[in-house]
Amino acid sequence: MKRTKLAAVLCASVALPWAAGAVELEVTHWWTSGGEAAAVAEFAKAFDATGNTWVDGAIAGGGDTARPVMISRITGGDPMGATQFNHGQQALELVEAGLMLDLTDVAEAEGWKDIIYPPSLLDSCTVDGRIYCVPVNIHSPEWLWLSNKAYADAGIPVPTNWDEFVASAPALEAAGKLPLALGNQPWQSNLAFGAITVAIGGLDLWKKVNVEKDMEAAAGPEMLKVFEAAAAARKLAEKSTVQDWNQATNMVITGEAGGQIMGDWAQGEFAVAEKVAGTDYTCLPGLGVNKYISTGGDAFYFPKLDDPEKEAAQKQLASVMLSKEAQVAFNLKKGSLPVRGDVDLAAANDCMKKGLEILASGNIVPSGDQVWTPDTQAQVEDLMIEFWKSQDMAPADAQARWVEILKSDS
Questions:
Q1: What is the rounded end-to-end Cα distance, in angstroms, of the chain?
Q2: CATH class of 143-291+372-407
Q3: Which residues contact 188 (CB under 8 A, 6 or more apart)?
Q4: pLDDT of residue 10
């Protein structure tokens, strides 16, 4: 169903067995940067308004740090009330082990299948026909964020696509700017590679490799061009010394760096810094080459607690997170797109409007979390860390190792 069609869908109020009294629920997540904290506070405020209490369980260090902690607590008999995971297979084993609460009654009563777009988001929450999570946003990682100040200081126009960005590097360096800011967290290099894959290789190649699992295409000359482009980007980021992604974003905000390849959550940091899209910074979805949205993002799961009152509160929280009001408030501050197609986003900035237009056009693909197993993703991430940190690893050698990893999951 197209998002434009979803705009006409109205979700009727339904009677569900919510908790009669106030219940405290611990909610774990890895949203700790300024923009992320401001966004998750909107969910907390909406849940607290029901008479229950959101107990914040933020875990610093990003998803790679937080997920093992969350999983260990759930499997070790110390579950939280709700926990964040990304769309896809990250919580599949926990669901199959019977450790997650079934939300199908809430989903059916509120018509989630009619209001969540694209359908793949709810599909990722569905196991054997039952729904175990609530999608809360759509995040596309393939954006190039540019500092208008850095380009003004360098005396050259702000690029409109990836090729122009690469060509602008000498002028930026002459002005004392870092061309490409890249943090040292492992997932960031993998994200940058994924963005370059679509920008240089195109959507058809991406789909052949990631959806059709075509290993000839993965090993072919078009994919080699992607690795060569990544090697060029690696050179542009060679002097980047920051660790966290939001530190790299701050370099773009302050004009120390020309650009950053990062997901649309970077908008939250620009918003906290009171920067205006189109005036202080420029955003290029698909690196300005292939404009599309990959439907990654976040979902919340609810571990079984063996407590009827808390279970009712868990289901109420799931409902709140998908409400129109919470979807708007959360996603405007997060920089992500809502999963509902019937909400008013008149307050959206220029970059969010670009994302909404692409989403409405149907120019979307699933995220890596939805097409590859966690083990394959971890192996690819390890390879990307090595490739981006070693100027000596040849693109062809990296491609060959990458193909071998994918073959085990194809």
A1: 29
A2: alpha beta
A3: 182, 245, 248, 262
A4: 32
**45 near 320, Cβ under 8 Å?**
no
Structure tokens, 33: 């940067």
**Neighbour order of strands in the sheet with 53-58:** 53-58, 24-29, 82-86, 298-301, 133-135
pLDDT in the model for residue 363: 83
DSSP state for residue 154 in the 8-state scheme: H
Residue (of 334, 313, 298) closest to 80 by Cα position: 313
Both tokens of 198, joined, read: 């679509």
The number of beta carbons lying within 10 Å of the beta carbon of residue 375 is 12
What letter represents residue 383's amino acid?
L
- Quote the pTM value: 0.80
- For residue 139, give the amino acid letter: H
Structure tokens at 408: 């085990």
**Token digits for 155?**
């005396």
Which tokens hold the place of 243? 């660790």
CA–CA gap between residue 377 and residue 374 (Å, rounded) = 5
pLDDT confidence of residue 7: 35
- DSSP-derived pairing of the beta strands 298-301 and 281-285: unpaired
Nearest to 228 by CA among 117, 5, 405, 394: 394
Q: How is residue 256 written in tokens?
A: 């120390």
- How far is it, in rounded angstroms, from Cα 370 to Cα 120? 9
3-class SS of residue 357: helix
Query: Which sequence spans correspond to the domains of the chain?
Result: 16-139+295-365, 143-291+372-407
Architecture of the domain spanning 16-139+295-365: 3-Layer(aba) Sandwich (3.40)
CA distance 53 to 36: 20
Give the tokens for residue 66: 């937080």
Integer Cα distance of 318 and 313 in angstroms? 9
Topology match between the domains 16-139+295-365 and 143-291+372-407: yes
Q: Which residues of the chain have pLDDT under 50?
A: 1-15
CA 318 to CA 179: how far, in whole Å?
42
